[in-house]
Specification:
Blueprint: E1 2-13, E2 16-24, E3 27-31, E4 34-36, H1 43-51, E5 55-69, E6 72-84, E7 92-95, H2 96-104, H3 109-119, E8 127-130, E9 139-141
Parallel strand pairs: 1-6, 5-8
Antiparallel strand pairs: 1-2, 1-4, 2-3, 2-7, 5-6, 8-9
Length: 147
């Protein structure tokens, strides 16, 4: 089975969180900086590029999300990072409560659920999220407090 690694990152500036957006079907979708990691690409290089920094420093691992879709096994690693160098203005800095509100509207659970749970204090660092089916509830270790 093919495997794909992805990364997402929480970048903070005080009480603000950096979000990136893309237009999908005439609607703006907000996410944390990151995405699929190419073969041989350093994990956090993808985050730095999307976050608009020369580089980022990983502060701690926040989550691992595992799921299978379309015959591909995905593993997404979530980090908290600090930007290095000047920020190029990409993305949007939003207050933590607004960041959670925007991320809650994301349709894709393996990105939405770990990010929202961490930002709202319901999940501990290094939580493992596993989806047997994408439309099912995930299994988390350690357990995540309900919303």
């Amino acid at each position: 089975m093919e495997q794909q690694l992805a990364v997402g990152a929480v970048v903070r500036r005080g009480r603000d969180v950096l979000l990136v957006s893309e237009d999908v079907d005439a609607e703006t979708v907000w996410a944390l900086p990151g995405g699929a990691v190419g073969a041989g690409e350093p994990l956090l290089e993808r985050v730095a590029r999307e976050a608009g920094f020369a580089a980022v420093t990983g502060e701690r691992m926040l989550w691992v999300a595992r799921y299978t879709a379309g015959g591909v096994r995905y593993e997404t690693l979530g980090f908290e990072v600090t930007g290095v160098g000047a920020h190029d203005g990409s993305g949007e800095w939003v207050h933590l409560t607004e960041a959670v509100r925007r991320l809650e509207r994301m349709w894709f659970a393996p990105i939405r659920e770990p990010a929202v749970a961490y930002l709202t204090g319901r999940a501990r660092v290094a939580t493992l999220w596993t989806w047997a089916e994408l439309d099912a509830e995930p299994v988390t270790v350690p357990a995540v407090r309900p919303a």
